[in-house]
Write a structure and sequence with these properties.
Helicase, Ruva Protein, domain 3, alpha/beta, 452 residues, binds adenosine-5'-triphosphate, 3 domains, binds magnesium ion, six-stranded mixed sheet, Rossmann fold, elongated
């Protein structure tokens, strides 16, 4: 039988230990706040967490000290154990409200929503000097800020007003982070308007990629970057100069292998590849775009995803003259997107069919531009051979001739083979014939608006 004891899991155990510690700190701080003020505040010592737990690893990797750990625990509490924050519900009888010192980001619900002000209170009480010292935890370059987010809120606390309402809004911790900390495994996000990115997968292998030598060389270069970036950026100290990210542009006609190549790059380097639907992002959800996209970028950076933007033309297209308010809005979102792409610390690939639409300034943003040409006769032969390798063929099929006579790209060849296989089986044949293939090719040509 599986062990269902809630404490059996090392990850959950670490989180619970940390929240217990938070409860102790809250209790001690409140005792100090309500008690005789003169005694120095003695915070309970932070616990030693089990080795190998997701929380332990995160704390070590991000280099979080005790104060930063406490903020992380505070951000975790509402999602893991909101009752840990109940002691803050003491009402200030003088004004019949919660004590503003406690920094509730919201006071309406049934649970206490902590803010950065709450954290400052836990760390510094009402001692202004200590509170100011603790504010460095929330500066944009503190490692904690890559984990715990701040959302602007309404403030009742003068200190918070002074520093902008950022300190008064809820501390945020993305759902995937909570899940990872509690279970050790990150769930895969669902594709939705709120999360407009979908994982790319393929049953194909690196060796199935059939590309001209110089294109393969370019792709090998990107893959070598992924494999060696630690050495280049850290050991050779180039991160400050080069930035951690890498941007590649894949351009070429439909069905030439751009999406497949991005997928294979992930497979080869052990990284997950997520495709972002730009059409969905830029046009439909005006206003929500930044929020939705920033989620995708945050996750990509935290989990080292490869981001693949398909039909990136939407990015160049919208940059022209604007007429309507909608256009202007789309332009703003495009600017935001371009900026995030520029700053992203991972590999970002943009794919497009329209090389000619891209202006030089845009081109310079890429570390690498790879053109995917229509395959020549020799590559087409390879493509046909590869896809037909376990398909039973009638003797009259001449692959070399078919490849030579029809200028189809890989995607179109797939369609043809699928269609021909269906035709063969519909006439109860055991083998695909030359005629099945010819008819399917004619159909595919018509579809592409071509003849012969
Ligand atoms: N160079 C290639 N090598 C091997 N297979 C290929 C190649 N190009 C295309 N294919 C086959 O065609 C399918 C479709 O290709 P893919 O989706 O990668 O094209 P694309 O360039 O992204 O097209 P689009 O511009 O329409 O998005 C692939 O999944 C693969 O089976
Ligand atoms: Mg594609």
């Amino acid at each position: 039988m599986t062990d269902l004891t809630p404490t059996a899991d090392i990850h959950a155990r670490a989180v619970m230990t940390e929240i217990d510690w938070l409860s102790d700190v809250i209790a001690a701080r409140l005792r100090h706040f309500f008690g005789a003020g003169d005694a120095p505040f003695a915070p309970p010592a932070a616990p030693t967490l089990p080795k190998g737990a997701a929380l332990t690893d995160l704390i070590t990797e991000a280099g979080l000290d005790t104060s930063a750990r406490l903020v992380l625990a505070l951000a975790l509490a509402p999602q893991v154990n909101p009752a840990a924050l109940d002691p803050f519900f003491v009402r200030n009888t003088a004004i019949d409200r919660l004590f503003s010192e406690f920094g509730a980001a919201r006071q309406d619900g049934t649970s206490f929503v902590p803010s950065a002000v709450t954290a400052l209170f836990l760390l510094g009480g009402v001692d202004t000097a200590r509170r100011i010292a603790a504010m460095t935890l929330f500066s944009p370059d503190h490692p904690l800020r890559r984990i715990v987010g701040l959302v602007p809120g309404q403030s009742h606390d003068p200190a918070a007003v002074a520093s902008g309402t950022l300190y008064a809004g809820p501390l945020t911790l993305p759902a995937f982070r909570v899940a990872t900390l509690c279970s050790g495994r990150a769930p895969e996000p669902d594709f939705s308007p709120q999360f407009p990115a979908k994982r790319l997968r393929s049953g194909m292998k690196w060796d199935d990629l059939i590309l001209p030598r110089e294109v393969k060389h370019g792709i090998d270069h990107v893959s070598a970057w992924l494999e060696n970036r630690q050495t280049i950026l850290h050991d050779w100290g180039m991160e400050s100069r080069l930035g951690a990210g890498f941007k590649a542009l894949f351009y070429g006609p439909p069905g030439t292998g751009k999406t497949l190549t991005a997928t294979m790059l992930g497979q080869r380097t052990g990284l997950e590849v997520y495709r972002i639907d730009l059409a969905m992002v830029v046009s439909k959800y005006i206003g929500e775009t930044e929020k939705n996209l920033s989620q995708v970028f945050d996750m990509a950076e935290q989990r080292d995803w490869i981001l693949f933007f398909d039909e990136a033309d939407a990015l160049f297209g919208a940059r022209g003259a604007t007429s309507s308010a909608n256009d202007r809005h789309a332009n703003q979102e495009v600017s935001y997107l371009l900026q995030r792409i520029e700053e992203c610390s991972g590999l970002v690939i943009l794919a497009t069919n329209l090389r000619s639409n891209i202006d030089e300034a845009f081109f310079r943003r890429f570390q690498m531009a790879v053109g995917f040409p229509k395959p020549d006769a020799a590559l087409r032969t390879e493509l046909w051979r590869n896809i037909l390798r376990s398909v039973p063929l009638q003797d009259d099929v001449d692959i070399v001739a078919i490849a030579r006579d029809h200028t189809l790209a890989g995607g179109a060849i797939n369609n043809v083979v699928r269609h021909a296989a269906i035709s063969a089986l519909r006439r109860n044949a055991t083998h695909v014939s030359a005629r099945d293939l010819q008819q399917a090719i004619a159909g595919e040509m018509r579809k592409e608006g071509r003849t012969g």
